[in-house]
TrEMBL record:
Protein name: DUF1996 domain-containing protein
InterPro entries the UniProt entry points to: DUF1996
Lineage: Eukaryota, Fungi, Dikarya, Ascomycota, Pezizomycotina
Domain DUF1996: 30-279
Keyword Ribonucleoprotein among record annotations: no
Keyword Signal: yes
Keywords: Signal
Coiled coil (UniProt feature): none
Length: 345
């Protein structure tokens, strides 16, 4: 706590953003890993700006006209694979998402956030950035974390985890693979991105090597950035709440865990996520330079350094599907995955 006060006095900022974004699209597109492929290999659930399409490039902050995020200057896109339930009879159904109760936007608007994710931009931890200035991502910046080809615990990375939700507020109990037992309030998927940048490249051939991860798991304080990747960027993290309630009476009789990512991963070690920066102008840097935290940075009904919109306006923003196929209802196979099941994408 003493260190925290010292940093404040020294004028070093330590903003921590946590905000909700409703679903903007669910379809097989991946402008980052498979640009131009319509459809991409597997189904994604996407939040953020409506400039999302198969080939998006350049300064996304100048391209969107609406966003499903609380902050109206954030046209970034954030996405992960979609989660499906595999019935004993071989059929699949997409698991719906629900909003994080900790966002607490109720009262500010009469409609709840539709699906989506909780997005974080923090520093070394919630309360400090150590002695380093936090540099916002430049226009065109993109990255991924994790890999759909990882199929065992040795390949899993800190910060890519699952929480078996006993209640909507369960936190801290994390596993690198899908929970093996039914989870009363659903499954939370957690993705922490790397936060050290090489200072030069907005992307790299594997979409990862321009960044270096100092993530230790959870929201624990990160280690220092190495000389190869010296620029401290915000620590981006996603939390996705998957509502498994509809499947609670369909757990397989053989006891096997029935949830599967859209790229046919039933273990869960291949969990991965994509980030495409799209904050307008210097809005993200403006927020990072501040000392606000969570709702204090602005939320529906509460003024802050960032401009906000109502939940109804978030939910109203959407992207048209360019891939004509069913991703909903009971499906005979996972879209794009064929049969029999494959482990990798
Ligand atoms: C994606 O959007 C950009 C900018 O509006 C446009 O130039 C491009 O043609 C779009 N690509 C697809 C595949 O629709
Ligand atoms: C599997 O079970 C679900 C839920 O009862 C049902 O809707 C679906 O049609 C079944 N699929 C097959 C192939 O029987
Ligand atoms: C993981 O690593 C441990 C220790 O090196 C090894 O014993 C084990 O076989 C590895 N597991 C897999 C699935 O590769
Ligand atoms: C989860 O899904 C069930 C229906 O399957 C629904 O009744 C419930 O309201 C959902 N929970 C949340 C928090 O959205
Ligand atoms: C953020 O702070 C840095 C260092 O004090 C300053 O140079 C920059 O102009 C600030 N940017 C914004 C958008 O406030």
């Amino acid at each position: 706590m003493k260190l925290h006060i010292f940093l404040l006095q020294a004028g070093i900022a330590h903003a921590a953003l946590r905000f909700g974004c409703s679903t903007v699209s669910i379809q097989r597109l991946d402008p980052l890993v498979e640009p131009g492929n319509i459809p991409s290999a597997h189904v994604h659930q996407i939040v953020g700006g409506n400039a999302f399409n198969a080939t998006m490039k350049g300064d996304i902050g100048e391209q969107g006209t609406c966003t499903t995020c609380v902050y109206t200057e954030d046209f970034s896109n954030y996405w992960t694979a979609a989660m499906y339930f595999r019935h004993e009879n071989g059929s699949y159904k997409r698991v719906p998402q629900y909003p994080n109760a900790q966002l607490g936007y109720e009262g500010s608007d009469d409609s709840a956030i539709k699906g989506g994710m909780t997005i974080y931009y923090t520093n070394k931890d919630f309360n400090s950035n150590g002695d380093q200035y936090i540099t916002a991502f430049p226009p065109g910046f993109r990255m991924t974390v994790g890999s759909p080809t990882v199929d065992n615990v040795n390949g899993s990375k800190p910060g890519l985890r699952y929480t078996c939700l006993q209640t909507i507020l369960t936190r801290g109990y994390e596993t690198p693979d899908f929970p093996k037992e039914p989870c009363p309030a659903g499954i939370m998927a957690i993705h922490h991105f790397p936060a050290c940048w090489d200072g030069k490249n907005v992307d790299s051939p594997d979409h990862q090597s321009h960044m270096f991860s100092t993530v230790k798991g959870g929201f624990r304080e990160a280690g220092p950035c190495p000389a190869s990747h010296p620029v401290r960027m915000p620590q981006v993290a996603y939390e996705t709440m998957w509502n498994t309630t509809a499947f609670k009476d369909m757990w397989p009789k053989d006891g096997s865990q029935p949830f599967v990512w859209s790229y046919s991963d039933s273990k869960g070690y291949g969990t991965h996520a994509d980030y495409l920066f799209g904050w307008k102008g210097d809005s993200l840097q403006r927020a990072l330079n501040d000392t606000c935290m969570f709702h204090g940075c602005g939320s529906p009904g509460m003024q802050g350094i960032l401009k906000t919109q109502t939940v109804a306006d978030m939910n109203a923003c959407a992207v048209e599907n360019t891939v004509e196929e069913d991703t909903e209802g009971w499906l005979e196979q996972l879209p794009g995955q064929g049969m029999p099941m494959r482990i990798s994408a």
